[in-house]
Design brief:
Number of helices: 3
Shape: rod-shaped
Helix content: 40-55%
Number of strands: 0
Order of helices and strands: HHH
Radius of gyration: 28 Å
């Protein structure tokens, strides 16, 4: 099958443009350290911490 008359060979100029796009996408993504922290399980709050937060929420100070 032959190429159609309007089919064009891709120029090598598409390479730098694509490379720049990929670079920008990588920079906008969160870093590996940030992703690791997001996946890290949160520490459970102790009963003492919960009591203190509730006390503060009720408006009681030391």
């Amino acid at each position: 099958m032959e190429r159609h008359i309007i089919d064009k060979h891709r120029d090598l100029q598409d390479g730098p443009r694509l490379r720049e796009y990929v670079r920008m996408e990588r920079e906008s993504a969160p870093s590996a350290a940030s992703r690791t922290l997001q996946q890290k399980p949160r520490a459970e709050r102790s009963a003492r911490q919960v009591k203190e937060f509730l006390r503060i929420e009720r408006g009681q100070t030391a």
